[in-house]
């Protein structure tokens, strides 16, 4: 395989830069190298609960200094997509500040009355009343969008039901499947590339999950680096019908590639 020249970088957050609130070895140095060499980059996350400012603060607390404008969430990708589809539209949103703020900033009106879309994102406390409202609005003709397909999310006590699980409940009640904007949809990567004015041929993606980060990176035409510091073990790589461009132990191995 011909070695590509990498000018821009996309990287996942959890499992690559941080793990359970702690910086992974090499993460701070990698981001510092990107910034010192003025390399365009974005941190991508399917987390739609928090705003980019919130996530920048959380990363800083862990010792990784990422500007908020260098964070691209599934909420921001979803809001950008909808603003292009139906500019100035309306939506009934189930989610938290990361999603509602992104929708407002994209020019959307949030409403429970005849919305163009029902938009489902992550939330710590899913309301049966809100889910019922979403079901009725979708049955009445609202289009169904979800920020990401992840069925579970992490917590200190163990896995929690996440967006994909709640979407499955709404689909069962309506017969309508959502369009997912976040990873592994390569659209999230393309919107990220547009944001930093990057080209797929000279951009790399770093991730810890084969079924989201790596497959989406491949489909978007990027060079891909799988790190083994997150949710994927070396044995699991061979179980997939596709392979990353490179497998490394952690992001510390990539500092010299910047």
Molecular shape: globular
CATH fold-level assignment of the largest domain: Rossmann fold
| SSE order, one letter for each helix or strand | EEEHEHEHEHEEHEEEHEHEHEHE
Beta-strand residue percentage: 15-25%
Instruction: Note the total helix count.
Output: 9
Mean pLDDT: 95
As a whole number of angstroms, the C-alpha radius of gyration is 18 Å
- CATH C-level category of the largest domain: Alpha Beta
Number of domains: 2
Describe the protein in words:
- The longest helix has 12 residues, at about 75-85.
- By secondary structure, the protein is of the alpha/beta class.
- The mean pLDDT is about 95.
- The chain is globular and about 55 Å long.
- The protein has helices at about 25-35, 50-60, 75-85, 95-105, 130-140, 165-175, 185-195, 210-220, 235; strands spanning about 10, 20, 20-25, 40-45, 70-75, 90-95, 110, 115-120, 145, 150-155, 160, 180, 205, 225, 245-250.
- α3 (about 75-85) packs parallel to α4 (about 95-105), α3 crosses α7 (about 185-195) and α5 packs across α6 (about 165-175).
- It folds into two domains: about 10-45 and about 185-255, 3-Layer(aba) Sandwich (Rossmann fold); about 75-180, HAD superfamily/HAD-like (Rossmann fold, 3-Layer(aba) Sandwich).
- About 35% of the residues lie in helices and about 20% in strands.
- α5 (about 130-140) links the parallel β8 and β9 (about 145).
- The strands form four sheets. A six-stranded parallel β-sheet has the order 5-4-1-13-14-15, with helices on both faces. The chain has a five-stranded parallel β-sheet with strand order 7-6-8-9-12, with helices on both faces.
- The protein contains nine helices and 15 strands.
């Amino acid at each position: 395989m011909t070695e590509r020249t990498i000018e821009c970088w996309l990287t996942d957050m959890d499992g690559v830069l941080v793990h359970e609130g702690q910086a992974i070895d090499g993460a701070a140095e990698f981001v510092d190298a990107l910034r010192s060499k003025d390399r365009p980059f974005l941190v991508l996350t399917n987390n739609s609960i928090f705003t980019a400012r919130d996530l920048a603060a959380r990363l800083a607390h862990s010792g990784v200094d990422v500007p908020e404008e260098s964070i691209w969430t599934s909420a921001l990708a979803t809001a950008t997509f909808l603003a292009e589809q139906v500019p100035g539209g309306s939506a009934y949103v189930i989610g938290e500040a990361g999603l509602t703020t992104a929708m407002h900033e994209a020019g959307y009106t949030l409403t429970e009355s005849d919305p163009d879309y029902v938009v489902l994102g992550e939330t710590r406390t899913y309301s049966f009343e809100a889910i019922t409202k979403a079901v009725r609005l979708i049955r009445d003709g609202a289009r169904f969008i979800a920020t990401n397909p992840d069925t579970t999310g992490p917590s200190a006590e163990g896995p929690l039901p996440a967006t994909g699980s709640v979407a499955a409940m709404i689909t069962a009640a309506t017969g309508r499947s959502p369009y997912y904007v976040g990873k592994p949809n390569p659209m999230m990567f393309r919107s990220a590339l547009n944001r930093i004015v990057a080209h797929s041929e000279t951009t790399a993606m770093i991730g810890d999950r084969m079924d989201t980060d790596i497959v989406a990176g491949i489909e978007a035409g990027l060079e891909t680096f799988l790190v083994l510091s997150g949710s994927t073990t070396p044995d699991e790589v061979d179980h997939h019908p596709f392979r990353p461009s490179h497998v490394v132990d952690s992001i510390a191995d990539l500092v010299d590639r910047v």
